[in-house]
């Protein structure tokens, strides 16, 4: 009975139900103010309540059974039938500011599992890290409606997640991005500032550093770890930026890091991944994305509506070979008719449905 010294909250709630405050039963009116400090004067008043309110052997037995059941739940010795049982109800009379309803069993289990998985995020075995990231993603989905439990767990797991995003196998990077997208659904404000401060600068720097290497590399480069990391980061950045609804400054950092991957000199898979990043940026800030793409390559000249107005001069002028022409034309077409043009239409291969301007731009880019 050594564990009996510190009853948990459910047992404490049970005790308050067994031994209610006399104020709830109207007994304070029968007691004088002078008898408040006397224990002997309260004892007869308790006997006047009747035998039905006295603690019986059955009450003590039920208390011990409840205690043992709570201990089994804490130790994880819960059967399938008990897991499906309804959570204990809270006394409606307990309306104090510090009384919180007990958590459902699945929320308690998800919190415990997430807490025990955090230290496994740094395991040396890649398979264990991948499995832990999958488990964390499921726990986040379960805890989305309980921010009081989710936010502390996310705070504890954040350092390990940052390491998975910035210095790990490409498969772990993709899984970590998936966890962040799920987490961003309910913890956008919490995640946005941390992502922009701890993760985005490192990812952007890595993309900018590796871009010249991938532009000069041959077909064998697609089998290297560096290529897989570039592809994983590009595939994860777009959806996360849209989910977190980043500000203009952070979106510009993402766009600047991904612009060079729109070049025809880059591997085809990296071009496609970069175009998908800009498709997600269009959903967040279409005006800035339109201007940025026209600064990179401007397929047409903008004539002012009146002679008194000066013509708009953009840096991406036509008439000279431009390696970004093909990707920019595809993105501008998507921006003008995004509702009627699905994502799979952004493939680079030739086909009868592709506009002539796109094909001509690609031929011009290949000449360069």
TrEMBL record:
Residues 8-32, 340-350 have a biased composition (Polar residues). InterPro entries: ARM-like (IPR011989), ARM-type_fold (IPR016024), TELO2-interacting_protein_1 (IPR052587), TPR_TTI1_C (IPR057567). GO terms for cellular component: cytoplasm. Residues 86-97 have a biased composition (Basic and acidic residues). Residues 1-53, 76-102, 340-368 are annotated as: Disordered. Residues 14-290 form the TTI1 C-terminal TPR domain. This is TELO2 interacting protein 1.
């Amino acid at each position: 009975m050594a564990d009996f010294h510190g009853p948990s909250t459910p047992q404490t709630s049970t005790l308050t139900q067994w031994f209610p405050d006399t104020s709830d039963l109207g007994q304070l009116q029968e007691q004088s103010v002078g008898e408040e400090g006397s224990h002997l004067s309260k004892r007869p008043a308790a006997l006047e309540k009747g035998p039905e309110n006295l603690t019986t052997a059955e009450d003590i037995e039920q208390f011990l059974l409840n205690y043992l059941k709570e201990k089994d739940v804490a130790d994880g010795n819960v059967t399938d039938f008990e897991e499906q049982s309804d959570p204990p109800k809270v006394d409606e009379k307990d309306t104090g500011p510090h009384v919180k309803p007990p958590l459902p069993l699945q929320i308690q289990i998800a919190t415990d599992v997430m807490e025990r998985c955090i230290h496994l995020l740094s395991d040396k075995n890649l398979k264990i890290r991948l499995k832990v990231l999958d488990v964390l993603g499921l726990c986040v989905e379960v805890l989305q409606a309980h921010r009081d439990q989710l936010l502390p767990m996310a705070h504890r797991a954040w350092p390990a997640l940052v390491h998975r995003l910035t210095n790990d196998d490409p498969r772990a990077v993709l899984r970590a991005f998936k966890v962040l997208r799920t987490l961003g659904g309910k913890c956008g404000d919490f995640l946005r500032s941390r992502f922009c401060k701890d993760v985005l600068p490192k990812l952007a720097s890595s993309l900018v550093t590796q871009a010249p290497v991938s532009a000069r590399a041959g077909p064998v480069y697609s089998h290297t770890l560096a290529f897989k990391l570039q592809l994983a980061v590009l595939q994860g950045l777009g959806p996360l930026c849209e989910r977190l609804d980043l500000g203009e400054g952070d979106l510009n950092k993402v766009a600047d890091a991904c612009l060079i991957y729109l070049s025809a000199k880059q591997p085809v898979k990296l071009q496609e991944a970069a175009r998908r990043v800009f498709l997600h940026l269009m959903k967040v800030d279409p005006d800035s994305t339109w201007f940025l793409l026209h600064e990179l390559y401007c397929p047409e000249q903008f004539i002012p509506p009146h002679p008194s107005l000066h013509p708009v001069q953009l840096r991406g002028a036509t008439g000279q070979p431009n390696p970004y022409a093909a990707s920019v034309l595809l993105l501008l077409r998507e921006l003008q008719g995004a509702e009627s043009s699905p994502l799979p239409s952004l493939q680079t291969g030739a086909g009868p449905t592709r506009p002539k301007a796109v094909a001509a731009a690609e031929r011009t880019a290949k000449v360069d």
